[in-house]
Every structure is written in structure tokens, then in C-alpha cells.
């Protein structure tokens, strides 16, 4: 996935447009992408990319998550 595609996906998941993905937006994004299994576990695992521990993912953290 290139930078433009990553930004588009980030913006799609960031439904309130604040430039950060919160846990609710992340869960909704996983559901929209057809995530299977235990959603809570997947979200918790993804939030490990929250490098500054502020409870949200900014674009850089999101990029790291998807590498």
C-alpha cells in the first residue's frame, strides 16, 4: 500500500475528521473491512501502535501499524 492509499484509508476510518483514530473508529473500520474473530482482541492488538499512549492513533502510528 502506498502513501496515498494509506492516507485514504486513514481518512476513511477517521470518521470525525480530527486527524486521529480513536478506539471506536478503529473497531468500526475493522468491521467495515470484514474483520472476523474477536473484534476486541484485534482492536487491542492494533492499539499497541499507539506509541505515545494517548489512546488514539495518528497517521504516523497508523502507518507503523500497517507496515
UniProtKB/TrEMBL annotation:
Transmembrane segments: none annotated. Residues 1-36, 50-67 form the EF-hand domain. InterPro entries: EF-hand-dom_pair (IPR011992), EF_Hand_1_Ca_BS (IPR018247), EF_hand_dom (IPR002048). Pfam families: EF-hand_7. One of its GO terms (molecular function) is calcium ion binding. This is EF-hand domain-containing protein. It comes from Streptomyces filamentosus (Streptomyces roseosporus).
Amino acid at each position: 500500500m502506498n502513501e496515498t492509499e494509506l492516507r485514504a484509508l486513514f481518512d476513511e476510518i477517521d470518521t470525525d475528521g480530527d486527524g486521529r483514530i480513536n478506539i471506536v473508529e478503529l473497531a468500526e473500520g475493522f468491521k467495515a473491512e470484514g474483520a472476523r474473530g474477536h473484534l476486541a482482541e484485534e482492536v487491542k492488538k492494533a492499539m499497541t501502535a499507539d506509541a505515545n499512549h494517548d489512546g488514539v492513533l495518528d497517521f504516523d502510528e497508523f502507518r507503523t501499524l500497517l507496515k
